Structures
1.
Amino acid sequence: MNPADTGQAHTATMAREALFELMRPIDDAVREWPRKTGRAARNRVLDAVRARGLSYQSRDEDTWAEVSAAAGPARLHIAALGHLLGGHHRLHHTAGINQMHRLADLVFGPGATGPALREVEQTLSSWQTSPHLLEWQVGNAVLDALLSAGSPCLEDLPDTLVRQLVAEYNNVAGLNSRRRGLIKLSRVLASKGTIPAPLHSNEGKAGPRSDMLSTVPLQWAEWALRWRKFSTHEPGTIRSMFSVILIAGRWAAEKHADVIAPDQWSRDMAAEYVADTMHATVGQWAGHNRNRSRFGQPICPGGRAARIDSIRGFFCDLIEWEWIKPRFDPRRVMSMPLSLRAQMGPNPRIIDDASWAKLMAAGLTLNAEDLKPCGSGRAREAGWKATYYPVEMVRAMVGVWLFGGCRVDEIRRLELDCVTWDQATDDTTGEPFTICLLHIPQNKTSRPFNKPVDPIVGQLIDAWKLIRPPQPDLIDRKTGQKRPHLFCHRGQLVGKDYLNHNIIPVLFHKSGVPQADSHGALTSHRARAAIATQLLNARESLTVNDLQQWLGHKHPASTRYYAEILRRTLTAAYKKADYFARNVRTIQVLIDRESILTGAAADGEQPWKYYDLGEGYCSYDFFAKCPHRLACARCPFYVPKQSARGQLLAVKDGIDQMLEQLNLTDDEREALEGDREAVGTLAERLADTPTPAGPTPRELGTTTSFIPLSQVFNSTLEYQENRFTQPNEQVGQAPKKQQKNPENNRKIAQISASEHTFDGEP
């Protein structure tokens, strides 16, 4: 045999073996495919190897995508081979392949992804996810994730991969549906424990915006971002403080371009910033501000206080964490000016009673027709009337909002078993009544606690729980623990803006109440102030301490920002206190007209005015100014009613009755109210004070006696109701003159003929 022929044969054999070695992985991959389809795909791959001079194992993802795009009808099979042979699990993204079911069957085998799909669909169906979304939105998202992971099992989907896919589909035209499907898939994975927490629709919006940071000096922005990373404040507090910290950086860049970093700030510079903040306008140093409605107007006191408080807290944290050396005391230099503090005080933004009553009526009669239906326009035209959330769930939310006095965050985070029923007995009537206790989760100022609410709240919640489908346990953002939430639907909490943006406008429209008043927009949080104010002004009102516990405030001062004493309540309390009348009393006075007409009173021979003291009369003309009005039994001006002279006044003709007001001292008022100790103290103090007749009470022996002013009344009206019977007998107006009758004349004659004399009567 010719050696040349032998060499050629050997070369051909080696080439054949190399070709078989090159084809063997492809043949193994397409063995389960239709023979014709598999052979066509294999030939496409081998032609690309020959044309490019590059083995398919060493091709990158772009090369496989290019080969797949040129394959025409075999594009799907080339992508499957790139996945199996080249390990490019994301090739369906680059090649723009949408036939996910066929691609998954080619990669994993027919029906290999079926169990994973059924598990996801069944779980979401139990959470009442819309059925029409399961097949095309959720199904494609699950297959996309499985292909990207290179496994047909859900347990092999890592959290990083799911987040990466959601980030890639963010704001990509035509792929928002795929992104929403991946978010639904993350809820299933989180409930299974495959990933730590589900993803949210605003995953891409976390952190500061780039346009916000671009207007801040780089050195200051680095300090601010570092503070944001380590701060332990509430997320909302961090966001608001962070924006104000950036404002201080822009101010420093404008006023002191050579002093940018926080460790370079001096005491004078900090004081200058506070002074400039006091005269700042809206939008000044704010960078990218999309809301320009009040641009250029003076900042409100609360806004100025927020700017000063935030920068003070920023510098305090930097000094406390030992990031900078203190060059001044922020608590003193950046303290709020007294002039600004005086402008800030409790100003509860309550809702007036009439509007609140209409909102309550609208909330208690809310039905499905009042809510906005969900679905496309074509679906609604076809008769689709379902709302996004069940109406029972919406009614329960409205009930908690109307009667619970809770924050929006507290309403969203209510536990499934948040209602406790109990029985109690009324102290007055002895009748039993039902108690409904609402368990409030941990909030920003207090630990979990129970508060009593109207039983209708518990009834609405129980009605929702009867039809509530099973939902996964979600992680509470405050405690970090998984627990069942009351207002959870489709595997997620109700939206934080759903109450303000969807439900409350419906209630305003139904009740006819405008959505704004003199205090501003009627938001959900203003209901908290309205309820607190009504509880504080009720007939049997809550005390401030009770209201503090009911609202869940840590300090009583916080309660003052939610509840205020209404003007009508203050007026009623002032009237009830009877400040003026408590020291003013009226006393009955008898006027002897006969003594006046005959001139006996003018000559001093006979008194003309007698003050009715109950057990006797005082004939002293200036009784209203006498300091001994409560102890005058032995005073020469005192006339007992049982004496002959006193009986004569009762039956004598020409006696008119009138009322006269007395201004009582504190001692006299206490004596009238039954304070015997006050009576003794008064008598002892006046023991050596001369009476109108001259002698002192000690000389008269009246230091221990007491004449109660039983005819002194609290008010003229009371006297009229209890004393006068004639309609024309009014204060300051004498009644009709007593008529002469034989019986009176007979009594006068008997008294005149008696042995007693007027002078020296006991």
2.
Amino acid sequence: MSGWSWIWPSVGGTPINQGLDSEMFDRVDYPYSETFVREAIQNSLDARLDMTKPVVIRFSFHEDRLGKRGAFLRQAMEHRQRANLPVPTGWASERIKWIVVEDSNTKGLLGDLKDRKGDFWGYWLNFGLSNKTGTGRGGRGIGRVTFLIASQMHTVIGLTRRFDDKALAACGMSVLKADQYGSDFKSTHAYLAESEENSIYRLHDGADFHASLVDAFRLSPYPQDANLTGLSLVIPFPHDELDEDGILAAAIDHFAPAILNGTLVVEVGVDRLDKDTIKQVAPCVSQHIKSKPVKGGTSRYLAMIDAGLAGSKSAIQLPDAKAKLADHRELPDAERYREKLANGETIAFELTFPMTKSGQTTEVGLTIVAAPTPYGKMPLDRLFREGMSLPDVRSRRPADIDLVMLIDQEPLAQYLNFCEGKAHLDLLESKEVRTKLADAGFDGIHVKRLVKSLPDDLREFLTEESAEPDTSVWEGYFSVPDPSSPKKKVPKPNEKDPNPDPPTVVDPPPANASAVTVDALEDGFRLNSNVDYTKFPALADVTVAYADGSGKPTWSEYDFRFEDLEILSENCTPSFTDNRLRIQDWVSSSMIEVRGFDTRRELDIRIRTESNASAD
């Protein structure tokens, strides 16, 4: 047989969704080499089987002639060539590189193989839909695209043994290009399968197929008598940026608590990363860690996580999630923490508060670890939820304090999962987030705001207040006016003309009306058309940043990204670049509303408008 079939279905009248959301999972600050590792480990941890044993995930790199691998990839490549998509380097010379990602002590891909909404077909077919309940580390249903992004041919093949029925099941998907091909309009994906079967596919499920797949890609077998379960993924033609040291570095950077507490073991080539070896492996790969503070302070980073995992008997209790941490500065424990930090010590304590879900209120909390930042080093700043980092939850003013926060308790961990963005890097409060929280029975967005502001609030809480400046220290350097000295005399009116004519007052010209009016919202702003403007259509150019006290505040992508915010527009077509919003077709009935900004910071909004006759 020349190859196993790939089905490239015709779409019919079904809507399509082109693309891979690559802008979310392949960024300058978090390239796919990191998000690939984050997604692979996250999925395995979420599928953990025996809670008394660690999840083991293996990344193995291979290279060989195409040979027997060609039977599994040749038709997918033919579809790719038909769609005029690039062919990976090596295909023409019959050479192939591939990565295998395998886990053990996991449940595998469960779900009814005949049910389109079940977990198995949800993984392969339903992007943007998720069956997760918020108790895991994912929940958006799109993170698995990182495996496709990692492949030069945007293809992944998977083999799983399922915990529930011990059955083997294999499938594969390849991203193509939706377009008209002859009389058919083809879909965005092709699938490694025998045939279409209503809304799903009939899988290649014979023993010879499974054995050939294991042999061709050097997968770990799932012998029936060993009762092993898990998932194996094949990434053909991976990008060169994916390498062994980079995978080890990303695992240390983003999953150190899960490794140190014995939940996770990562094997890459001959290296094994576990609670006993992580401190020996970390210095060897630290230069591959993308986070500069962690790269420059890996040992103290791991030491701080260790201190947090050891637990603490002391706690700061807040009356509710709306409370301000600064109001508790005078507590004896708070003063003791500040004194210890001033003496160069590492501190660890619990921060607790009540939280309500489905009418039931429980006390929840997180572990705080803080230490003085060594001279000349960048401050550490990291929040972990269930052992996985949310690296964009960090301070705008880290000062000289290292800070690590660990969250493992339910229902707080579940709540924050609903607040995370699609790439699970930050905490958001969009309309979608609010709806998810309400549907899950959680009471409002206040807990998210408390946690998101903690990197700043804790540093203020743990820093001694500055004394009032002593102005007398400058008296020897500057001339200070004597308050008792006589004041300058006010000039008298012109005695020669005691009743001069009043100066002529010229009214200033009327101000040019802007095409836009601005309404401030609690977490954003709304732009409306100005009824006094007479030169529609107009071009509106809006620059948004958080105020910093300067005349021209700076913006960073870590402050906000428009694609992460909730945007509603009417009768206009907005476009976004960095922190700039541009609308070229602003008319008398236009409106745009942007929500989801940090409510603790003031927005600086600058608007320039001009008539845009070319928009007619």
3.
Amino acid sequence: MSIQVFGMPVSRGVAIGRAVLVASSRVDVAHYFVPAERLEHEVARLREARDAVAAELTALKRDLPGDAPAELSALLDVHLMLLHDEALTGATKVWIHERHYNAEWALSAQLEVLARQFDDMEDAYLRERKADVEQVAERLLRYLGRSEPGAAEVLAPAAGGARDFAGEDPLVLVANDVAPADMIQFKRSVFTGFVTDVGGKTSHTAIVARSMDIPAVVGAREASRLIRQDDWLVIDGDAGVVIVNPSPIVLEEYRFRQRQSELERARLNRLRHTPAVTLDGQAVELLANIELPADAAGALEAGAVGVGLFRSEFLFMNRDGDLPDEEEQFEAYRSAVLAMQGLPVTIRTVDIGADKPLDRMSPTELRHEHALNPALGLRAIRWSLSEPGMFRQQLRAILRASAFGKVRILVPMVAHLGEIRATLEAVARARQQLDDAGRPYGRVEVGAMIEVPAAALMIDRFLAHFDYVSIGTNDLIQYTLAIDRADDAVSHLFDPWHPAVLRLIADTIARANACGRGVSVCGEMAGDAAFTDLLLAMGLRSFSMHPARIASIKQRVLRADTRKLAATLEAVMQADDPARESGRLHQGAQPA
């Protein structure tokens, strides 16, 4: 029977495919596809985990004190029996062989199947046995986590060949939530859409889905519970609706919409290499946001005139705490610089913390692991300054890459003058260390992200120290409105049109332009065509966005007359409801 699940639309378009569930677990589980030659290795890992846990449970039973309750010994017997039950480990092998899931993912998928079977049982005693199955599975998952392959092995199968063994049917991912590190793995994989129970418009699932230009619905609440493995799904990324097992008529309607979207995408694609110039002759710089060096080629192909944001923290993830050293970072940054063929590359220093934790934390971070509000804690430049050795390594790697092309450093979440001084001193020290070692580097501009209201209000002081600024609208909105953008309970209050947010953005752009400093927007607003006219009216001439959004933003730029837009800006800024008033701006844009 067809059902509908409602959530928040975060990446437009239509996706149709079979559901692939990533089950939630109290144990962190890696999810990646395994090539055919590694399948038996994954089965061996599962067998090794089963034998190790069986030995552990047997030892526990043997060492029980003589006065231990008989029920405790019986419980261990139950767990041993479940451990060797084909319904658990045997069926898990099927997931490995047929779906090419890694052992952890296969086990958590089978656990989800069993949990639903127990929930449907009428006998209360049998329903309660679900907890025993979960405990056994989580023992296995913990052991598997200790034997997980390195990051290079994990990413390689997802990067290529996944389509070869995923079958002919398109696949869509369904999960309670997807961690940023997992999103990077899935970005290189086979999914044509995403559905999550939680999240908001600027959650990392949403951001990566937009960067992949695939439909996504987040905040769908019970989606991962209502949808079953292999269900046919339609993801309507425009309306925020997921249709489970649609009727043939509905399916055909959405397939028609898919074809229309593909035609529109092909039409926009023809603008790739057209210069972005407004009707009144204003040149506009359209840059790309990337996560990994391999993304640079795609940015160039999409028509980007440079990289406005290289999120370097993704080099630090999926590594089991083994952080990249200076040489590895240098090679990654140089690779991106060379791929851009002389166009500028802006590298943001590592923005770790809050919703992007490292796999293994230092003693300093461990003290903050359970902070009540990690978004306000030790993150971004605060974390870098607390780890001076790591920070200087990254700065030296970036500086060295500048010998191969135009490179800029971007510092996230600066709020205090003391942070500015400490950051610039670290850059100067890194330069001196390279001079002492005789290593070449080029001229590198240093800029700050304006994503804390304090930075926007102190913009004149910031411009006295930095060569340029880049407005990170995602965090600026979060901190201005006191909204945790990762919390779906308050995601409806995340409002880019809020008058306070618009005023901070407009003032930052105006002051930077008046001082002759470069200013760009690299947050989600830059890639949202609904804000293009507004930002042009404010005087913005540099946008940085997901490569997939460049063509649609360029289309808006080509139709815009900035003189007419500027004339109507104040009416929008003074309005109680700027979103409604923004229709005036469109009078400054010409129809297609």
